[in-house]
Amino acid sequence: MRYGRWEVIEELGRGGQGIAYRVIDSSKVDVEKLVAEVHAAFGKMRVNTSDEQQRSYSLELLSLLERYLGRHGPENTAALKVLRPDLPDAQKARQRLKEEVNVVSKLNHPSLLKVLDSQIDEGWLVMPLYTEGTLATQQGRFAGKPTEALQSFRSLLEGVAELHKRSIVHRDIKPENIFVVEDKLVLGDFGIAYVDDAGHTRVSDTYENVGSRDWMPPWAMGRRVEVRPSFDVCSLGKVLWAMVSGRTKLPLWYWEEAEFNLLRLFPLDERMAWINNLLRGSVRQKEEDTWPTATQFLERVDGTLSILRRGGQVFKGMYRACRVCGVGVYELLVGDDNHTARRNLRLDTGQKIRVFQCGYCGHLDLFRMTENPLAWPRPE
Questions:
Q1: What single-letter DSSP state applies at residue 109?
Q2: For the segment 99-140, what is each residue's pLDDT rounded down to a tens digit?
Q3: Are 129 and 117 in contact (CB under 8 A)?
Q4: 114 and 143 part of one domain
């Protein structure tokens, strides 16, 4: 079976809208010509010639076979998506496919899907084949690894930030639409992308309620809302939570609930407080509390990665392993108003001092609180 120059090798999967196949580019190798050359090479080998000449013919035949087998190499392999023939609204599905091709053809970013070929009238398009699959198929890859998760997540954010700069909102960001490529992520499936263009060439209406329910913002569920980049920001936050938690779905905006809170799921990993800080700006009940675009999200992620790479800590209410012995845990020894303890430690300077002590080796950590350091969370 062929679609244009693409020869179908095997089916990869089926969805509600289409069928995916692994295909090869048949234009790279002329099979009929190659068969004729192989036949001629066999004919030469049947002739009674010297051993040296026979060896030369054998090497020629091996080279032809390598060319044929090379048709299936990764540089010649792609993924083809074709619309299902039994769709109830085939015309609208084909129009969405056209819009997806139109959107992607304007983009050139390593974290955004590329279209290699398409034939809208026949209802198919070809894209790179990502052999590592999607985030949905690698649920535990980043579980409990916040730094590694953020490093990969950052590449996805870069791609979405590029979309938002071009006034494009993806509207369907979820693990099933995010491909894994080594330590990077690539966003695909632009079928319901919203393009805020002057010509209004989009399929979906400005206020249309679309997207995957489990990954869309709470404020958009069951309502017709104006589509803004913050729609994607909330979905991105849910994806980050899923990557770090290793779980499939985060209901609504409930990341602070005990069942879903990363600090509860990983009680001995103080780094989870930094991930929660990122969720605080992305997964919110109200749109006005959410970062407006992926650019702001990316800035926060870069800052957080810088802190995590230096081993930075969130102090208040956090499990903190001793940075000297690495065995004990810091506990509050002297609070802001413990004047007697401060005098005993000769710290009665008239300033607010907090002192923490390791319960194993006795190492002390001191903090001057007069300036209310940024590392200490402020009251809501």
A1: -
A2: 899 999 989 999 999 999 999 999 999 999 999 999 999 989
A3: no
A4: no
Closest-CA residue to 259 (of 270, 271, 247, 269) = 247
For residues 198 and 180, the answer to whether their CB atoms sit within 8 Å is no
- For 49, the token pair is 């010639």
Paired tokens of 184: 């990077």
- Which runs of consecutive H residues, i.e. helices, occur in 70-194? 90-105, 146-165
- Contact predicate 156/282, CB 8 Å: no
The sign of the CA dihedral 109, 190, 242, 379 is: positive
Report the CATH number at residue 236: 1.10.510.10
Please tell me whether residues 301 and 353 are part of one structural domain: no
Which amino acid is present at 166? R
| Distance from C-alpha of 67 to C-alpha of 73, rounded to nearest angstrom | 10
CA atoms within 13 A on the CB side of 63: 8
Whether residue 197 is found in the same domain as residue 288: yes
Q: Which of 63, 98, 128 is the last residue of a domain?
A: 128
- Give CA–CA dist 89/100, Å, rounded: 17
Structure tokens at 28: 């790279």
Q: Measure Cα distances from 212 to 85, 221, 357 in Å.
A: 23, 10, 48
- Tens of pLDDT, residue by residue over 279-292, are 999 999 999 999 99
**Amino acid code (one letter) for 224:** R
Q: How many residues does the chain have?
A: 380
> Is the separation of the CB atoms in 191 and 172 below 8 Å?
yes
